[in-house]
Amino acid sequence: MPSLPDYSTAEEPQLVNWAKGGDLQSFEELVSRYRDRAYARAFSIMRNEDLAVDLSQNAWVKAWQRLAQFHGEASFPTWLNRIVTNLCLDELRRRKRARMDSIEEIEEATGPVENRMEIQEVDPMERLNREELRERIDAAMAKLSDNHRTVLVLYEYEQIEYKHIAEKMGTSIGTVMSRLFYARKKMAALLGETLKRDGLIE
Amino acid sequence: MNENEIQLKVQALVDGELTGREAEALQQRINDDAKLQHLHAKLTQMRGLIADSELPRPLPESRDFYWNKIAETIEHEKRAGERAAPPTPASRWLLRWLAPVAGVSALVLLLTLQQPTAPDLGITLNSDHELEMSDDEIDVMTYNSDDDSMSIVWLDYSMDIQRDYMELWLD
Amino acid sequence: MTLLRRHNLNRVTFLMVLLLFAGGGLASVQADSITVNARLVLGTSKEKQGSKKVSESIRKRLAKVFKWMHYHQLSSKKLTIDDSKIVTSKLSKNASIKVTNQKNGKVSVSLFSGGKMLLQKTQTLRSGQYMVLAGKSTGDSAWFIVLSKSN
Fold it and tell me: Which residue among A94, A125, A149 closes a domain?
């Protein structure tokens, strides 16, 4: 009688192959290994626990359904996180908070951004350790609008080119560039504010 | 190009989105302009900071709960052979609180909504279970595990009711 | 002589039968008494330091159905209820239950909050079965009243 494979020690490509063959247990092992990453990506975009859990779960279901399309061009978690991101974008489109986005879109369009936000001279890395910096960046990301946060996630975390970001967000490359510029400057301003607030800079 | 357009081009250069002659021309311009050099440096710094900053975040649910929902949906979609319909607002609320038991047939769930004209309900669930509500501002949902080892009555009420009644419980 | 003995035997037999019936009746009254464990539990996403956790058997059952990861026992009462009798028990400052023994393992549980009755649930409660009344509480938590028959 053949013995069951040891899923917990199996390599990722092997688990994926087994899962492609319909082995749900191997897929469960993949979920076990990467569920936190999938959730973290969903939360980075949605900033809501319940939504992030729901969307990451939906992404896992879609991943199961689309396993035949995964050929190992990227790692499995990278491929999965792309599914997570796409589902989040779909959800954001459904929940578009027009008012907040339009205020910032006006700011982008009229170009007062660089006038209102000073270029921060301080290097946050000199004042904070990596963990503290990550937490502050995360807190600053939460203050951005959905569009600005999304464009940062897509570019910085997913490392997607401008034109593909434009396709995903249903907008022009020029808008992507403006949003990215605004988002980065706003992040710099927010980080500077927290450093000032905490007395780390004057 | 106006100032804003130049700044966006500098950003594109930092992001590797400008290539060839356009990139060379802009780099030359930056070399001759202190303000653009400054902008280039700050954008490079910000890019480096954010790229590696995604905070690791543990899933706020137990492993079994999280996996059960995924397995349940996979099974459901396999049997249905089509995309699952998005849950209605009421059932989405319910699904949020409850974990699906493995196997749809194992889940026996009755959703009972309060009838506004019937202030005192006597609800017969099956020959053995009876439920009577006496407050018409509280909805109730009931659940029996498949092996009958647990019966649950979940009370659903507004924030006002929670504040007036339920929060006093935990004193 | 023989007649007297026979009469005495009959009387003895009669008394023995009487005793048997009486003893059987007494046993029957004791069998209809039921002991119920009632616990007030708080379900939370984050662990509460210093609080008592529920038993593993209850935790497993609740965790299988509900999303919370931690279950803390706030109070616990053991109620012995004779046949057709009612016992009231306070589980917290404002939460109380009234449990009625309706015979043959059937119980009726009324839930009160601040003296106001919210619901009444009736069912047969067998050993190993749990009756759970629950609702949401502040923050991301929920209260549970878990009732089970004590062996």
Answer: A94
pTM: 0.56
Enumerate residues 78 to 117 of chain C having a beta carbon within 8 A of any beta carbon in chain B.
91-95, 106, 113-114, 116-117
For residue range A143-201, what is the model confidence (pLDDT) as tens digits? 898 889 999 999 999 999 999 999 988 889 999 999 999 999 888 888 888 777 776 65
B147-166 pLDDT per residue, tens: 668 888 888 777 666 666 66
Q: C45: which 2 tokens?
A: 């996403």
Final residue belonging to a domain, choices A29, A63, A94: A94
Give domain status of residue A78, yes or no.
Answer: yes
Name residue C58's amino acid. Answer: I
B70 within domain boundaries: no
Q: Which amino acid is at C83?
A: D
**Integer Cα distance of C97 and C90 in angstroms:** 7
Domain count of the fold of chain A: 2
- Domain final residue pick, B51, B72, B90: B51
Q: What is the mean pLDDT of each run of 10 residues along chain C (151 residues)?
A: 41 51 46 88 86 90 83 93 91 90 89 86 90 85 91 62
C40 touches chain B (CB under 8 A): yes
- Asked whether the beta carbons of residue B132 and residue C120 sit closer than 8 angstroms, the reply is yes
State whether A36 and A120 are in the same domain.
no
**C-beta atoms of B71 and A157 within 8 A:** no
Interface pTM, i.e. ipTM = 0.80
Alpha-carbon separation of residue A52 from A45, B114, B141, C44, C115 (angstroms): 8, 31, 25, 19, 40
Range of the domain at A186: 98-197
Which stretches of A10-144 are DSSP H helices?
12-20, 24-46, 49-65, 76-94, 98-110, 113-116, 130-143
- Is the distance from CB of A133 to CB of A165 less than 8 angstroms? no
